[in-house]
Design brief:
The complex is a heterodimer of chains A (313) and B (155). Chain A is an alpha+beta fold and 313 residues long. Chain A is built from 11 helices and 12 strands. In chain A, the strands form 3 sheets. Chain A has a 5-stranded antiparallel β-sheet with strand order 4-5-8-6-7, with no helix packed on it. A 4-stranded antiparallel β-sheet of chain A has the order 9-10-11-12. Chain A has a 3-stranded parallel β-sheet with strand order 1-3-2, covered by helices on one side. Chain B is an alpha+beta fold and 155 residues long. In chain B, 33% of the residues lie in helices and 16% in strands. Chain B contains 5 helices and 5 strands. Chain B has helices at 26-33, 89-97, 106-119, 125-132, 142-153; strands at 5-11, 14-20, 52-55, 58-61, 74-76. Chain B has a 5-stranded mixed β-sheet with strand order 2-1-5-3-4, with helices on both faces. In chain B, a hairpin with a 2-residue loop joins strand 1 (5-11) and strand 2 (14-20). In chain B, helix 2 (89-97) crosses helix 5 (142-153). Classes of the chains: A alpha+beta (313), B alpha+beta (155). The A-B interface holds A 1-8, 10, 31, 34-35, 38-39, 42-43, 51, 53, 55, 103-106, 108-109, 228-230 and B 2-3, 5, 21-25, 28, 41, 44-47, 49, 52, 58-61, 63-66, 68-69, 71, 112, 130-131, 133-136.
């Protein structure tokens, strides 16, 4: 599988990267680990005129203790983040989702920023041009139909970041730098809610850091997957508990992770929380397993995860 | 006219300067320009691990890395593991245990295992399984592969 032609650029600073982006008038993409972007380019899902490799920008590779917050540079590899003291000791949901992400080799290449900004996926979309042509282009490819749900009026692609789901259960903010300067937003403000174009990142903006509030939490992450390694989540559930207050999040269904808070952890309360989450979830047959199975696994995995966390707390 | 870039890096201890296209992958450069055909193209999308090489000691899917990205790096391919006539203990162990069936995944398996043993010379069986689950063997011959890595780690 070959890549189409593009220019390759390697800026040494954010300022230089932004200037280069501007030069290509919207035709450039930023490259970090490339574990999502390069396969997308190979499948013709991205056709940039220039690839701006931001890996030489050293400040984006650091983890810093900043008083109330831990600042995680967007280029920190997932494998390194798994071993960070704060993550191991205080954010078990994030630790578990990092462990569950893909496989070790791809964790060494993939970065936390890239993991959050991975594009949404669908069994009928992440395919070669040849394959996609045979069905006709769908909404996400710029067409006028959904190939997963015949007759549907919208896209149902799934956002499959394991770590976005766990970060949704913690207090998390993002820093983005763009042509108009830097801005800091809550994690949830990153999402458009639309699977076709899942992020509200402005043209030219670079995700520079992930801030996680320094709180002592208990928790975990459960991933529904077939192979146990390399694969994307068919469903991801994260739970974090702090001072008797819990946050349960579900990801890999639809455009963004959904979270709900709960203070009681008995079976009925968990069921109520899951029912609230399920109202916003519409799993469809766009993964390798049936939608009904994914839906039925939400309460099963939620109950298991919460029970394990509460008993261990 | 197509633009070429001159990229310098080290392959198996040898400094290399090579003219590549900006959209050329490391796997393409290794196989087509440097005639190092040990790394194989399986899925071509970074999933299967058969193209794994070491970049500064880190196992890396060379099919999803641009050659331009490895400027100044040290690359080790399967061809660079032996010292002269002496094979790496992992290669010896793979032969000894019969851990090769069709052989397509073997270079990737060995280099992934090599990086593990370099950072953790005495891994547990669980750690070996976790690490090698990065690579796919479609002959499904994992048992002998795990035995080979276990044997090499206890040497």
């Amino acid at each position: 599988m070959i890549l189409r032609k593009f220019e390759y650029l390697r800026p040494a600073s954010i300022k230089e990267a932004l200037e280069l982006y501007d030069k290509f008038e919207g035709g450039a993409v930023y490259l970090s680990g490339g574990t999502d972007l390069v396969p997308r380019m190979k499948l013709g899902l991205e056709r940039p005129s220039a690839v701006i490799d931001i890996k030489q920008i050293a400040p984006l590779k650091r983890v810093e203790d900043q008083g109330e917050w831990v600042k995680i540079g967007s280029l920190v590899p997932l494998f390194d983040l798994r071993q960070e003291g704060w993550v191991v000791d205080n954010f078990p949901a994030l630790k578990a989702s990092l462990d569950a992400t893909s496989c070790e080799t791809l964790q060494m290449r993939g970065t936390i920023g890239g993991n959050l900004l991975q594009n949404s996926r669908c069994l009928f979309y992440n395919q070669s041009v040849f394959w996609r042509k045979s069905k006709g282009f769908c909404f996400k490819m710029g067409g006028d139909k959904c190939n997963a749900v015949p007759g549907a009026k919208r896209c149902f692609a799934n956002y499959c970041s394991d770590n976005a789901t766990s970060l949704s259960t913690l207090t998390c903010e993002l820093e983005l730098s763009g042509p108009d300067g830097a801005r800091r937003i809550a994690l949830d403000e990153l999402y458009s809610g639309k699977p076709g174009k899942p992020f509200k990142v402005r043209a030219g903006e670079i995700l520079t850091a992930i801030f996680v509030k320094k709180e002592n939490t208990q928790g975990g992450y459960e991933k529904l997957r077939l192979r146990g390694s390399i694969d994307y989540p068919l469903l991801g559930l994260a739970f974090s508990l702090k001072d008797g207050k819990g946050t349960l999040a579900v990801g890999a269904v639809g455009a963004k992770p959904r979270a709900v808070e709960l203070t009681e952890f008995k079976k009925d309360s968990v069921k109520e929380a899951v029912d609230t989450l399920l109202k916003d979830l519409t799993p469809v047959n766009n993964t390798v397993v049936e939608a009904s199975y994914r839906k039925q696994m939400v309460p099963v995995m939620a109950e298991r995860l919460i029970k394990k966390t509460v008993e261990g707390a | 006219m197509e633009q070429f870039k001159i990229i310098s890096f080290e392959v198996n201890g040898e400094p290399i300067e090579v003219e590549v296209r900006p959209h050329e992958t490391l796997l393409e450069t290794l196989r087509n320009r440097l005639e190092l055909t040990g790394a194989k193209e399986g899925c071509g999308l970074g999933a299967c691990g058969s193209c794994t090489v070491l970049v500064n000691g880190v196992p890396t899917r060379s099919c999803i890395v641009l050659t331009a990205e490895v400027e100044g790096s040290k690359i080790t391919t399967i061809e660079g593991l032996a010292e002269g006539e002496r094979l790496d203990p992992l290669q010896e162990s793979f032969m000894e245990k019969g851990a090769v069936q069709c052989g397509f995944c073997t270079p990737g398996m060995i280099l992934t295992a090599k990086a593990l043993l370099d950072r953790n010379p005495r891994p547990t069986k669980e750690e070996i399984i976790t690490t090698l689950s990065s690579n796919v063997c479609r002959c499904t011959g994992y048992k002998k592969i795990l035995e080979a890595v276990e044997a090499a780690s206890s040497q």
